[in-house]
Amino acid sequence: MTDDACQQYLEDPDANAAHLQTCANCRVVAAVLGAKARIEPPSIDVNALPLAPWEGSSHRAWPLVLGTVVVVIGIALALCDAAGMSPLHVAEGSLASMEAFRTLAKAGASWLRAAPVGMPVVFGVFFLVVNALLVVLLRRAPRGIDA
User: Fold this and answer.
1) How far apart, in whole angstroms, are the C-alpha atoms of residue 64 and residue 138?
2) Residue 106's domain spans which residues?
């Protein structure tokens, strides 16, 4: 028995199968490992696993969501009252600030209309490449309990 030959056998047992005929220690190791390999792993009862929210789980956290919404609205109304403003005045101010975004979007659209002809082609190719990449990534097999 040589340590190099045993190491080569342990690294690649299929390629060095003839080593078992000359080394008793490696035969014992192979027999022990072969006996352990025949043991079947315990089966997993997939029905006993907890359900994820998207798998039809019966637990729903809607009371927490609705409670949070009520608390946030209450805080907003309290802040409006503390500032001496009505909620309608705050909403009108928000709509006025949205007008600035609308103006910015219109300016961007007019810039795109004045852009050179190659710009939409480059944008279209980029769009197709990104979407093709997403399709490739979504078609990969999932890695999970049943993969």
Assistant:
1) 32
2) 86-116
Handedness of CA 67, 69, 70, 72 (dihedral sign): positive
Please say whether the beta carbons of 18 and 5 come within 8 A: no
> Is 121 within the bounds of a domain?
no
Q: Is the dihedral of CA 119, 121, 124, 130 positive or negative?
A: negative
Residue 11 · residue 17 · CB < 8 Å: no
Q: How many domains does the chain have?
A: 2
pLDDT tens by residue, 77-134: 999 999 999 988 888 888 878 888 889 999 988 887 888 888 888 889 999 999 999 9
Three-state DSSP state, 65:
helix
| Contact (CB, 8 A) for 7 and 23 | no
Spatial contact of 13 and 30, defined as CB atoms under 8 Å apart: yes
Asked if residue 130 is part of any domain, the answer here is no
Please choose, from the candidates 45, 47, 24, 27, the residue with its C-alpha nearest in 3D space to the C-alpha of residue 35.
27
Which tokens go with 135? 């399709």
